[in-house]
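During the no-cost extension, the postdoctoral fellow (Dr. R.K.) reprocessed legacy sequence entries with the updated structure-token encoder. One reprocessed record is reproduced below for audit purposes.
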Amino acid sequence: MSVIRTIFLGTPFIARECLRALHEDEHFEVVGVISQPDRPAGRNMKLQASAVSQYAVEQNLPLICPEKAKGPEFIEAIKKMGAECAVVVAYGQILNKEFLELFYQRVVNVHASLLPRWRGAAPIQRAIMEGDKETGVCLQVMVKKLDAGDVLNYRKIKIENSMTAMDLHDAMIPLAQDLLKVDLMDYLRGHLSAKPQDEAQVTYAHKIDKSESVVDWNLPARTIFQRQRGLMMGPGSVTRLRGKRLKLIQIVVVDETSKGTPGEIVGLDGENIIVQCHPGRVQLMEVQPESRSRQTVKQFLAGHNIKTGEVFG
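Re-encoded structure tokens follow.
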């Protein structure tokens, strides 16, 4: 049985799980791992290794973490690994032509959407925020243009109404692993051909801007619900009440047609807060007050004398 010598480039948890799948597969030998350098993280902003770096160290896999994935030293380090192909999963850096030509047509990328829909940085979040009914994971041949490579295959997944971006992220992990274990091997052995994307169907999943976290109560209830679920991966959905910040952890749509003052509290029952949108209404079920831990709305109301008619925003 021939074994494919592979290098892996990735950074977050979903990439770690894809690396684990390749490392545990007898058909692949991971001869090198490339990840982002340690970055400040957590409340104390201490330097922390990426999820992929941590796995590589645990498994004693060769690891490099360059600030920039380019230049003579980087290319020479890659050549010395003696790989036959490269697998990229949410690496976080643009790979140049010189790198791609090291493994002609053998640099593949796992992307969390059904390309050509949602090319770019935030495909999971944007799919939920735009109300898509389904999405999936693609395996594509990498080219220099962002997420524009020919697609080898995909796995679809239905977006349930209750799914947050984190839920969808976790549900995609086994799909991504399966693409690597089955379809990547088929491609490398010449049993699977890539198909070009339809450029007329392209949409872009632009990076989430921090300003998007502020809830706009002038939007329809359904839109606010979708945005809140999508932004749960970060930076979250926040509003203000009595001048203080309140993060929305869980909400549901209770009405989609009623009209009134956007952001007004129109219902209280001791356990729930109903807020007017434009149009429709949402029910707050779990929140996180400023400088406090997350809590149910019942807990929040027990500590705050909230009244109907007050306005968020």
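Residues 210-302 form a domain with the Methionyl-tRNA Fmet Formyltransferase; Chain A, domain 2 fold (CATH 3.10.25.10). The first helix runs from residue 13 to 24. The remaining legacy entries will be reprocessed before the final report is submitted.
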